[in-house]
Amino acid sequence: MINLEAFFKISYGLYIVSSGDKDHGNGYISNTVFQVTSEPAQFAACCNKNNYTCGLIEQYGCFTVSVLGESASPDIFGRFGYRSGKDFNKLEGMNVAYETTGAPVILNDSLGYLECRVVQKTDVGSHIIFIGELVNAQICNVTDEPMTYAYYRKIRKGLSPKNAPTYIDKTKLEVRVTETSIYKCTACGHIYDESKEKVKFKDLPDDWKCPVCGADKEDFIKV
Amino acid sequence: MINLEAFFKISYGLYIVSSGDKDHGNGYISNTVFQVTSEPAQFAACCNKNNYTCGLIEQYGCFTVSVLGESASPDIFGRFGYRSGKDFNKLEGMNVAYETTGAPVILNDSLGYLECRVVQKTDVGSHIIFIGELVNAQICNVTDEPMTYAYYRKIRKGLSPKNAPTYIDKTKLEVRVTETSIYKCTACGHIYDESKEKVKFKDLPDDWKCPVCGADKEDFIKV
């Protein structure tokens, strides 16, 4: 028996994992970055094969990890979590550094970052776990706290996008609301379907934002 | 350049990872358990080769993960984090379930648990990353919050034991306190107050252990 709610008890941070170079860089929102050894310091990043960044990590043999803070703007989740680098230059207009590996390091909303050179990889089906040896680690912000996936879910009301290792088909979760309506973001078209959410739209906090584009709650209309 | 403080920006939960069976079971405190794919649901657990449990996972081909809550007792960290199953039966007197895999599931202080069958493993040097396909997932406690490593460090003032992927040589960290004669066990919180003892902490023998939980002398920090 598998109770999907147990999945939410596993803790994660939220990161932008990037690769490529100045001309062909891309990144995606990840919650699966982990240190796997201390001597030498090695980190694992689990990446969906459909992510454009996955191919870049294979091609360039390196990845960077920017640690997102709790105050990260909703825009960053829309840009790096819900759009594809295949048809959109996610780095345009962003604050990006190029250091030891030459791969882009996203500095917007970042508390600190790591740079790793890939030393091995494990194919786990839909995803690849890249193991990288750490070559650079820096701190950018000492006041904000790292954003956890729990914080993102509870406070920001965000959910994992389809390519995430932790994606859950929302229709499989127990639905606790009965009469439901559908609300649409007038900014980006994102649909808030109460039948697939645990919280009625009117019960969302006033400062709730569209998880895709960051528009305000009041920018949604009933459809 | 590597700033070790950046390592603390990566978020983790805290778990007891166990394996074996009713007669030969063991578990250890882990902070590196993460979901790697959703279809099928697979989880990774990164285990030091020196851990007694590591050999059991290889032998039995399965592992269980108990998610520790914020209210977990300090004893559980002493028992599962700082003692070895090679010379101590960690499961004696504990509340243990044996379900789908037959491996022990520690229920004490657990919010929920997962059972996985190992489908592949990756040798990353000092550690092995076991990839397991989920066969059972349950919730035990819906009120307590999952304990994160950040919470353990900040609120409980705990540090990683030597076999953890995130172990940091404490002498490498900047010491921010000046002079004091009180030492605290990072495993269970026990205080060694030199003003109430006959022996200065530094003069205690190297094999001295915490009288409460059995942690090593080096696991104490000056407070």
Concise structural overview:
The structure is a homodimer of 223-residue chains. The first copy, chain A, is mostly beta strands.
Radius of gyration of chain A: 18 Å
Strand content of chain A: 25-35%
How would you classify the quaternary structure?
Answer: homodimer
Tally of DSSP β-strands of chain A: 12
Side-by-side strand order of the widest sheet of chain A: 2-1-5-8-9-4-3
- In angstroms, what separates the terminal alpha carbons of chain A? 37 Å
Class by alpha and beta content of chain A = mainly beta
Largest interface in this structure: A-B, 55 and 55 residues
Largest sheet of chain A: 7 strands, antiparallel
Provide the residue-averaged pLDDT of chain A: 89
Range of helix content of chain A = 10-25%
How many DSSP helices of chain A?
3
Q: Characterize the overall form of chain A.
A: globular
Low-confidence stretches of chain A: none
Order of helix and strand elements from N to C terminus of chain A:
EEEEHEHEEEEHEEE
